[in-house]
Amino acid sequence: MRPSPHTRPLVFSVGSALAVACAAVAVSGCSRPESAPEPVRAVKVLTVGVGAVSAEHEFAGEVRARVESRLGFRVAGKITRRQAEVGQRVKAGQVLAQIDPQDYQLAATAARSQVAAAQTNRDLAAADLKRFRELKEQGFISGAELERREATLKSGQASLEQAQAQLSTQGNQARYTTLTADAAGVITAIDAEPGQVVAAGAPVVRLAQDGPRDVVFAVPEDKVAAVKLGSKVALRGWGGSAATPLAGTVREVAASADPVTRTFTVKVAMDGGADLPLGSTVTVVPAALNMAGRAVLKLPTSALRQEGAGSAVWVLDRASMTVRSQPVQLATADGNEAVIATGLQPGQEVVVAGVHVLSPGQKVGIYQEKAAQVSANAGVVAPEKVAPAPAAAGVAK
Question: Which domains does the chain have, with CATH numbers?
Answer without folding.
Answer: 101-174 (1.10.287), 211-289 (2.40.30.170), 295-366 (2.40.420.20)
